[in-house]
Amino acid sequence: ICICLNQTGARFHGPIIGAGAYTPEKAEDLIEKGLIDAVAFGRDYIANPDLVARLQCKAKLNPQRPESFYGGGAEGYTDYPTL
């Protein structure tokens, strides 16, 4: 990833936002190294509507339930527990 990101940063001068299977630790490391500017936590956010608070206090994240992500109903969108 780092080699590809180094090459991208050399050719593209806008913000680089990573997405897909990032852990908070991996995101923080790549941001600190200047390889990316931000990370999108889509699936983790669906499973943790209070994701920012959980990351700030290093709380355990709810497990994702991929089978409910795009069901069209409340399940998977509004039924995950918050802190």
TrEMBL record:
One of its GO terms (molecular function) is FMN binding. GO terms for cellular component: cytosol. Residues 13-60 form the NADH:flavin oxidoreductase/NADH oxidase N-terminal domain. InterPro entries: Aldolase_TIM (IPR013785), OxRdtase_FMN_N (IPR001155), Oye-like (IPR045247). It holds the Pfam family Oxidored_FMN. This is N-ethylmaleimide reductase. It comes from Salmonella enterica subsp. enterica serovar Rubislaw str. A4-653.
